[in-house]
Amino acid sequence: MISKAFKLSYASWLAIVLTGGFISGGVCAADEEAYFSELPIVASVSRLPQRLADAPTAVTVIDREMLRKMPIRDLNDVFRLVPGFQTYPNNTDAGRVTYHGMIDDIYAPRVQVLVDGRSMYSPLFGGSVNWLALPVMLDDIERIEIVRGTNAVSYGSNAYLGVINIITLDPAVSRGISVSSNYGNQNVRDYGVRIGGRIGEVGDYRVTYRSMADDGLTNRGDWADSYNKQHFDLRADLSLSERDTLQVGLGKAEGKNNIGSLLKPLDPHRQLQQSDSYFQLLYRHAKSATSEFEARYAFTEDRSEDPFVVDLIVFDPSLAGMKVPINQSGDKGTRHEIELQRRDAILGNSRMVVGVAWQYDQLYSNWFFPGQGGVKRENFRLFSNVEWKPSTWFTGNVGLAAEQDSFAGFHMLPRLSGNFHFDSENTLRAGIARATRSASMAAYRGAAIVDQPIVSYRYRFAGNPDLPVERLDTVEVGYLGDWRTWRSSLDVRLYRENIKGRLYRVNEKLNGAGYADDTLAYLAPLQNVQIHGLEYQFKWQPFDSTRLMLNQSFSKVDAEFLVSSSQSQNAGLDRFTEMSVPRRTTSVLWLQRLPFKIELSTAYYRMSEMKWSTNTSSPLYERVDVKLAYPFRLGGVGGEVAVTVQSLNGEHVEYKQTTGKPDGRIVERRQWVSLRLDF
Predict the structure, then answer these.
(1) What is the pLDDT of residues 297-347, one digit of tens each?
(2) Is the distance from CB of 82 to CB of 551 less than 8 angstroms?
(3) CATH code, domain with 123
(4) Are 351 and 343 in contact (CB under 8 A)?
(5) Pick from 177, 381, 357, 337: nearest CA to 249
(6) Residue 500 half-sphere exposure, CB side, CA atoms within 13 Å?
């Protein structure tokens, strides 16, 4: 249970912040350079660099300085500080990051994730994002722009509920050598090195290697946790001329974690090995200050493997020696991406971006596609966005994309919004948008089967080539306040998201002749869902030495089950969907500069009850994380030594708790010491 000592009211938090500010710095209400809440320029919404006050939907920006100071170790933890997001790190189940719930069996496939423009959606990992094999490290991130709202018009159908755009560090500002390590309980053992330098007179490069490992959560059921990841990354930025640049990137991430059960012979305990390898070229030509052309090519290869053998003796002693080899994840997926876009000024203060994108996926899977070889999928998309500024008090955004998918067919994706600027500090935003989401390749073409008549067991997964897409219609109203006199800002989003034909996995029990257990699994449109709520983000810098960020979200989900005789066993899905988004979440980040250059970072999270799957739940929990850091410089060597404690207020369940069973994934206190040296 959570100690009452850490159940602080907002008034208590504010008092602590104000006290710390007076102790360490005092008031300085006019220093613009220290202004924490100053609104940044973002490019992830319309693909046009825009002020937040001009963007067609809400955006949260996490910059490099915040990432360095936050009490985090994994990228997943960043999104606890984004209103409307839910997350947990990798354990015996794949880590997830989701916006407004809508969780599937394994992954969360409704938020697009980009790294330097390259989509992290994998044809291999359920058409979703595999956070364990994400080829980017915290130290290499310059900023993260999180679009809180559908953005299919800019990035295609997978940007269904939102976009996470990760922009990595420019090699020109990472020259030299940097080494780092974390060492703590739960066998936390992390090591990393980054080397950056010049490439003659034409550019700069950055090379990073990072290894991360821990023993994971304590086993309190029939499972055993672990975590291991290695990552190599190279980025080189070349100046071809005064107007032309070329960015080259390549890397590989490998991860291992334990999955399965210690007690179930059909799902035994085993190690899942995953990897992501990539290569990317990004060319930019600046024709003028208001015109730019961009071309990008990327290749990605994902692999996974979890081989195991089922010994039929567990069903019948007379079957000793009869074994069935299974490798559900013994797969390889590849993706080629080509994207061209051009930005131009039009009609005075108005601007436009137009582009074309092509993706070619190929998936090899003996489990899902036995005898089919490499299954191919193509996606072709045209997109455009126009920012119209007829006067100082109004900004209009109009977007339209046309998408042709070889599996899902043709769809139009529009967006319309208007921003009304009452003055330089107050903006009201209203908008509507439509998006679609197509399913994974297995959902269309899968044909997996485990057929063991001798033990009266059969399992089949059947794809549906005529599977429809999910459709999302969004209406939102937002308010943005940028109060420079008070060095604070407020971003509010009020929304209603209507999902028609929500796709979910059906497990249909059949009465097959000769089989006591005959299951047919497939994806089908099972629900209409409405998500509505309010969320806000408040930033405040009362003193030069004190920064505060408060996030809250309030949401409600209504689900209507689409009944049919073959799907009636899924009637309980409505309850799961309605609880897949917590009714209320709160997060607070307090950054405090103390005497002697010591930096204190405290994060507080509170999330009400939610369900990550149909038969498990996460109860209400509160969590406090703290980091105390001392940056230093000795001669030509700089660096930082820090101590981080997560779950300072004690253990709690964040992911899985089965009713009546002591097998919850209980998060215990974790602490580690960090050292970074920069040469």
Answers:
(1) 999 999 988 888 877 766 667 767 777 777 777 789 999 999 999 999 988
(2) yes
(3) 2.40.170.20
(4) yes
(5) 337
(6) 8
Alpha-carbon distances, residue 536 vs 487, 577, 609 (angstroms): 17, 23, 20
Beta partners for residue 388, in sequence order: 396
Total structural domains within the chain? 1
For residue 485, give the amino acid letter. T
Q: What is the span of the domain harbouring residue 660?
A: 4-678
Tokens of 392: 């100082």
Tokens of residue 674, six digits? 């960090």
Cα 612 to Cα 617: distance, rounded to the nearest angstrom: 6
- The Cβ of residue 7 has, within 10 Å, a number of other Cβ atoms equal to 12
Distance, CA of 140 to CA of 55 (rounded, Å): 26
CA separation, residue 113 to residues 308, 340, 412 (Å): 31, 19, 21
Q: What tokens appear for 345 in the block? A: 């000024």
Spatial separation of the C-alpha atoms in residues 248 and 250, rounded to whole Å: 7
Q: Which of 8-12, 590-594, 616-620 has the lowest mean pLDDT?
A: 8-12
What CA–CA distances, in Å, run from 616 to 131, 318, 375, 426, 674? 21, 36, 34, 43, 35
**pLDDT tens-digit readout, 24-75:** 444 333 344 454 556 788 998 999 999 999 999 999 999 999 999 999 998 9
Three-state DSSP string of 497-537? EEEEEEEEEEEEEECCCCCCEEEEEEEEEEEEEEEEEEEEE
